[in-house]
UniProtKB/TrEMBL annotation:
Name of the protein described by the UniProt record: RNA helicase
Organism domain of life: Bacteria
Claim: Nucleotide-binding is one of the keywords in the record: yes
Swiss-Prot/TrEMBL keywords: ATP-binding, Helicase, Hydrolase, Nucleotide-binding
UniProt record similarity statement: Belongs to the DEAD box helicase family.
Lineage start: Bacteria, Pseudomonadati, Bacteroidota, Chitinophagia, Chitinophagales
GO molecular function, one term: RNA binding
Amino acid sequence: MTTFEELGLDDRLVKATGELGFVNPTAIQEKAIPVLLGGTKDFIGLAQTGTGKTAAFGLPLLNLIDVQARHPQALVVCPTRELCLQIVKEIELFKKYMSGVFVTAVYGGTSIGLQIRDLKRGVQIVVATPGRLIDLIERKAINLEQIQYVVLDEADEMLNMGFQDDIEFILKNTPQRDSTWLFSATMPPEIKKVSKRYMTEPVEVQVGKVNT
Ligand code: ADP
Ligand code: MG
């Protein structure tokens, strides 16, 4: 069986996964992590719920960001506040042995002022739901100029919830985006449409059975 060391991750990330009780990578992690670390620009990862997709993108993001620079470099977009908080929590655990990494959550139904304050302090990774993120973009309270990585997590859920236009708006407002990673449990035609429009020859990895 493969280990996290063998996937090419930074030792500090390997140590943190070990402490979380992750012994072996899941199938989607084993396939996605080396590809993403290897500089693949556009990526589609398809795997069912509960297969460890958060670490499949979270660990490579932590490995790739520039910790010396305190501006948003990676943007993770997900459908709900709960998921947003869960992703931030997991990334916080993964980055335990890395200093200088800052992550923040951006979601609706709570004070925007506090989120603006957190963003002003300087973060490299922003995890956001579409509505609040667009609010921040329109208020010019978030700087997306230097976002290189955009992750669309639970892309099928976001499209089901009617976020297609919002996602396209976000993708159009990340001028330096050179990597777009899409994760989903299913592959409906709407996702194909988004990927055709905004991704270039994505590497597609599928684990198990995936419905269209
Ligand atoms: P998904 O996004 O695919 O639904 P998650 O990323 O939320 O899945 O992971 C589901 C659960 O599995 C989480 O509790 C996570 O901490 C755990 N997990 C992820 N990867 C591993 C691993 N390699 N070994 C053990 N547990 C893991
Ligand atoms: Mg998930």
